[in-house]
């Protein structure tokens, strides 16, 4: 089993790689190689594993080099993030749409129709001026993306669906919720502060919250997110049910509830490090994202949302205590 | 007022051009120029009009030449048709997706954010294995395209929506129903026979119907289709209601009802010229297209479906009697 992970040196890609290497198997087969394509080199711990192969460089160029090489499973996580795409329209199209097409063509050329898991995003949902989102997002809710990032993700879902229909890949679109708590530093995603307002105070640093305390968010822990991605990769086509993207299960919390959990676990001192400082651009983007999802399709695959935000904060602290989280 | 029509030498493009030239005005302004971009030269009657400018060549190259030129309204009708795209995946992506991106970039470079009407298609709707279409398609029904043509149209809708949100264009996505009766010869569209089974017998020629008599189709006459495209171009953004594509009004008929109208108007001899000869590829594509639409959003713009199929057949005969329908 040869696995390719794009964005493989990023936070989620590296975590996925570690999880796969520890499992040693995917879809019932032993994993011989995990290739990590990324503009950055993989973290040291991954590089030290003899099964890891680093493919460092822009995805567009990597795709040209990999054209026709056989992988059994491809996880396509690489993307320019939401705030970047909103600030630089052309960068977003190039990084998210053109690179995905190049990768799809590279994989198609191999001719083995590998599993191809595309990480899309709940950001495909946004409130069109005349098409307000329903209170609860269902599997068949029409996405009307209100950001270039969301548009690009939704377009790539369509490409993955059609490459699958044509038999070029066995593609699966999986929409990630906002992942909290991300370790490391802010990454330019509009949603980055959701991690920052927990991570920074627990590290004794100040954090700015750019949205109101009553803002609700649909989120998932890193562990549940990676678990969901792997479950979608391993599911039979029948269990998946069609080529429409699968929304991973979401826990709905308010910023206030997040800060309450921070205070309960990290103390009043940690809580006091969070300052509210509204950012209209971030607030507009985030407030458009839906906060409540019908999780039943994901649950049919055996996936459950995180039980509560307290458990997410505790898991973050436990992982931090276990050793430094290696990032590029 | 300078107007650009891509696919301007095709059946619908030429008809749109004739209608605009006859109206002399669009959006309340006199029309000074109608540029017809197409791989073919425009029909003679259009070339003879001093307001017409022919831009003959591939859209990709035309877009490079037109980059930055100011048009007030752009009608983007050019596309590879459904059966072509299904037979040649790469051609479809190039002709429909890449050319549309090139055109959008050309128009964006002009900086005047013109009205940009993208002709999408009811073919964006198809039955995903696990997401059967509802009995009636509404404005917020999730498209799950089951053809490369439908996927490409849906992707371009997303691009048009985002270029609009960013202020690069004032874009409007309009989904055309199957247009019947098309004059001229079959054009390689999977839906082409819907015109053929009326047009050919009325011309004394045999026609083959590749689907069963009970097959239902959502269709519109050429006149109503062009009327709808112009109404969408002239509508205020508020009247349009959001950036989600607008489904033009549809008349739902069965093949049997079409043949009954043919016999009522053209006689038993005409009817006898139609032979049923099933084509599984065409039948699979067409049976996946939805046949019943909720027309209320289009009706709010003042658009109505054709009243019945008899009137469509009579209009075709009246136009044919008025003189040859000029095609390239």
What does it look like?
2 copies of one chain form a homodimer. Chain A is an alpha/beta fold and 328 residues long. The first copy, chain A, has a single domain, classed as Rossmann fold (3-Layer(aba) Sandwich), CATH 3.40.50.720. Chain A has 14 helices and 14 strands. Chain A has helices at residues 11-23, 44-47, 59-66, 82-87, 89-110, 148-165, 193-202, 222-234, 237-240, 255-266, 268-272, 280-288, 296-300, 309-321, and strands at 2-6, 25-26, 29-30, 33-38, 52-56, 73-76, 115-121, 170-176, 178-179, 207-209, 216-220, 246-247, 251-254, 274-276. The radius of gyration of chain A is 19 Å and the shape is globular. The mean pLDDT of chain A is 95. At the A-B interface, helix 6 of A face helix 6 of B.
Q: What's the Cα radius of gyration of chain A?
A: 19 Å
Helix content of chain A: 40-55%
Distance from N terminus to C terminus of chain A (CA atoms, Å) equals 26 Å
- State the shape of chain A: globular
User: At CATH's second level, what is the architecture of chain A?
Assistant: 3-Layer(aba) Sandwich
Determine the strand fraction of chain A and express it as a percent band: 15-25%
Rounded mean pLDDT of chain A is 95
Total helix count of chain A? 14
Low-confidence stretches of chain A: none
Q: Please, what is the CATH homologous superfamily of chain A?
A: NAD(P)-binding Rossmann-like Domain
């Amino acid at each position: 089993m040869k696995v390719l992970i794009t964005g493989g040196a990023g936070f989620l890609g590296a975590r996925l790689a570690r999880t796969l290497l520890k499992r040693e198997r995917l879809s019932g087969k032993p994993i011989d190689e995990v290739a990590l394509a990324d503009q950055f080199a993989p973290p040291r711990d991954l590089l030290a594993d003899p099964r890891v192969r680093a493919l460092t460089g822009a995805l567009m160029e990597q795709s040209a080099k990999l054209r026709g090489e056989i992988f059994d499973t491809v996880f396509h996580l690489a993307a320019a993030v939401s705030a970047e795409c909103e600030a630089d329209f052309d960068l977003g199209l190039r990084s998210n749409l053109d690179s995905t097409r190049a990768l799809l063509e590279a994989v198609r050329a191999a001719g083995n129709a590998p599993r191809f898991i595309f990480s899309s995003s709940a950001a495909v949902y946004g409130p069109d001026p005349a098409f307000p989102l329903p209170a609860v997002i269902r599997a068949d809710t029409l996405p009307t993306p209100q950001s270039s990032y969301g548009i690009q993700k939704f377009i790539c879902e369509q490409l993955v669906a059609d490459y699958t229909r044509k038999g070029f890949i066995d593609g699966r679109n999986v929409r990630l919720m906002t992942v909290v708590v991300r370790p490391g530093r802010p990454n330019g995603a509009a949603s980055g502060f959701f991690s920052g307002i927990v991570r920074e105070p627990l590290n004794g640093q100040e954090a700015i919250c750019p949205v109101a305390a009553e803002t609700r968010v649909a989120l998932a822990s890193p562990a549940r997110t990676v678990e969901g991605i792997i479950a979608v990769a391993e599911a039979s086509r029948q269990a998946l049910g069609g080529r429409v993207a699968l929304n991973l299960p979401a826990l709905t919390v308010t910023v206030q509830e997040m800060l309450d959990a921070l205070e309960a676990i990290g103390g009043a001192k940690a809580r006091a490090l969070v300052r509210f400082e509204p950012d209209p651009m971030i607030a507009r983007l985030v407030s458009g994202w839906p906060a409540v999802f019908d999780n039943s399709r994901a649950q049919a695959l055996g996936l459950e949302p995180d039980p509560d935000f307290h458990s997410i904060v505790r898991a973050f602290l436990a992982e931090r205590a276990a050793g430094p989280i290696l990032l590029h």
